[in-house]
Amino acid sequence: MSIRVAIAYHSGYGHTARQAQAVASGAASVPGVHADLRNIAVLDEPLWQALADAQAIIFGTPTYMGSQSAVFQSFAEASGPVWARQGWRDKLAAGFTTSAGVNGDKLNTLSSLAVFAAQHGMHWVSLGLPPGWLYRTTGTADDLNRLGGFLGAMAQAPSDAGPDDAPSTADLRTAEHLGRRVAQVAVQLRQGRLVGAA
């Protein structure tokens, strides 16, 4: 039976959608893992069922005004019935976000996603990469984790650049790394649970 990793995201202008696709590509690169991209702008039964069936959910949202988008917040609040029955308890969780600013207060958004996951009783998976780019004098803008995040994958997309041009390749590769890491942890967790059950 394959492991399902759901990528539950909102994208206002297409930039976060590109980041979500990179996350899905990374997750799908792990043998035995199926990546399921889900746009949370439509809160329908297929969405909730897909998230119920997933072993891991990676949350994604643009950062607007220093926090997650209103669409993502509506999804979070609509998950109240799932919380009441502890439907996502012990699933893996992770997060990613995009903003126009290099900083853009993306950490606040990722922190909000981690708290949201914790309220659902989920296990948060960090990015697991050292910082790149300006962390060392030898760094370049092509480094993985060039924005130096730890809690999740960060991306930057200039406000006057379309989704065909941004986020950068480095940010998309960082998102791909996050998807792969979550999928690998999901595989390890399933193996451990199978051993424990035996």
UniProtKB/TrEMBL annotation:
Highest taxon of source: Bacteria
Chain ranges of the Flavodoxin-like domain: 5-183
A Pfam entry, by short name: FMN_red
PANTHER family for the chain: FLAVODOXIN-RELATED PROTEIN WRBA-RELATED, FLAVOPROTEIN-LIKE PROTEIN YCP4-RELATED
Protein's recorded name: NADPH-dependent FMN reductase
